[in-house]
């Protein structure tokens, strides 16, 4: 007869410490975002972050060696959140067209309603560097998430489409929308979608 494994006291204690650490880091990053949005990245201070996050300076330095390290971690956090939210938006859909539309809705919403535009206004140089890293990381992630979509388009067209180009067009469209917003917000990322679908539909009808 098998008996259930009872977690050891040390294992349970480690889990609690890890959860506490995650909660503390999340509070520090949330405070960082609030201060950057309010005053910009140049005026952020460890003291202000600690006060808003309600942690001591000793606790802060347990996780971040300096203010610069905090800003680097915050940028990684924003990029990681973007990638994870994008995956969460598309993974539930297996139909290629529905999956692509889910990606478009996410990108459109990110450009129109996300915090990125506010960050750009508050801390332009810092946010543009963040965008640069986000651009390169997103190319590979979109290609991975849209693999079944691109396979479907290949079959419809009878050719292999330039996947790198499509991914680049999508992410460049989002970033350009953040930097220079469209005069008609309802267009947004949808413009590039209409172009891509017209290309796919045209190729299908000519076969």
Description:
InterPro entries: DNA-bd_HTH_TetR-type_CS (IPR023772), Homeodomain-like_sf (IPR009057), HTH-type_Tx_Regulator (IPR050624), HTH_TetR (IPR001647). GO terms for molecular function: DNA binding. Pfam families: TetR_N (PF00440). This is AcrR family transcriptional regulator. With 207 residues, this protein is mainly alpha-helical. The chain has two domains: 56 residues, Arc Repressor Mutant, subunit A (Orthogonal Bundle), CATH 1.10.10; 139 residues. It has ten helices and no strands. α4 packs antiparallel against α5 and α5 crosses α8. The longest helix is centred in the N-terminal third of the chain and has 31 residues. The radius of gyration is 22 Å and the shape is elongated. The C terminus is likely disordered.
């Amino acid at each position: 007869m098998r008996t259930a494994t009872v977690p050891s006291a040390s294992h349970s204690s480690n889990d609690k410490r890890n959860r506490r650490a995650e909660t503390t880091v999340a509070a520090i990053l949330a405070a960082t975002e609030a201060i950057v949005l309010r005053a910009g990245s140049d005026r952020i201070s460890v003291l202000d972050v600690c006060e808003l996050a309600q942690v001591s300076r000793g606790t802060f330095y347990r996780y971040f060696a300096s203010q610069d390290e905090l800003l680097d971690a915050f940028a990684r956090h924003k990029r990681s959140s973007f990638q994870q939210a994008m995956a969460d938006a598309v993974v539930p859909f297996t139909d290629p067209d529905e999956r692509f539309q889910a990606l478009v809705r996410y990108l459109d919403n990110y450009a129109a309603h996300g915090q990125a535009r506010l960050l750009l206004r508050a801390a332009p140089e810092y946010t543009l560097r963040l965008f640069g890293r986000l651009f390169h990381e997103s190319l590979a992630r979109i290609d991975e998430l849209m693999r079944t979509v691109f396979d479907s388009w290949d079959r419809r067209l009878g050719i292999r489409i330039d996947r790198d180009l499509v991914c680049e067009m999508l992410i460049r469209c989002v970033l350009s929308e953040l930097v220079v917003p469209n005069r008609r917000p309802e267009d947004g990322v949808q413009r590039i979608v209409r172009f891509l679908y017209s290309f796919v539909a045209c190729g299908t009808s000519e076969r």
